[in-house]
Design goal:
By secondary structure, the chain is mainly α. The protein has 3 helices and no strands. It starts with a helix and ends in a 29-residue tail after the last helix.
């Protein structure tokens, strides 16, 4: 998980997990470990919002109780701080979740699993007889 949070390949520690800000590479450039099948869809924003909320809300309440600043000061302080904190935590959290999936062999990261699943044909459609 720490390698993923640091944007390093979980397998070798050399390649990069991310291609863009949140877009993952198809595979590691060093060892070839595939990343495309991860399923870290809605979890990173959820954890990011939870962590940012647990940091910002107590700080906001402490500032309000101690100094009673005007509303415009709250807005000019907490909105940019919340956005900056959320953007700085999103990528490491997503990398850590991809690393967790890799460590637990989830969603195609299992090295012993077969790449191609066996083909199972669809059942034949049922026939309906007409009563005349």
């Amino acid at each position: 998980m720490l390698r993923g949070a640091a944007n390093k390949c979980m397998n070798c520690g050399n390649g990069k997990v991310f291609d863009g800000f949140l877009a993952t590479n198809h595979a590691c450039s060093s060892c070839g470990q595939e990343f495309h099948h991860h399923r870290a869809d809605d979890a990173p924003p959820y954890f990011t919002i939870t962590i940012v909320g647990h940091i910002i809300i107590p700080a906001l309440l402490a500032v309000e109780v101690l100094w009673h600043p005007a509303l415009w000061i709250h807005m000019s302080l907490w909105v940019p701080l919340t956005i900056l904190l959320a953007l700085s935590l999103m990528r490491p959290i997503k990398g850590a979740l991809v690393g967790l999936q890799w460590a637990l062999y989830m969603h195609g990261f299992d090295p012993d699993a077969e790449d191609d699943l066996p083909f199972v044909p669809a059942p034949a459609p049922a026939t309906v007889e007409r009563l005349s």
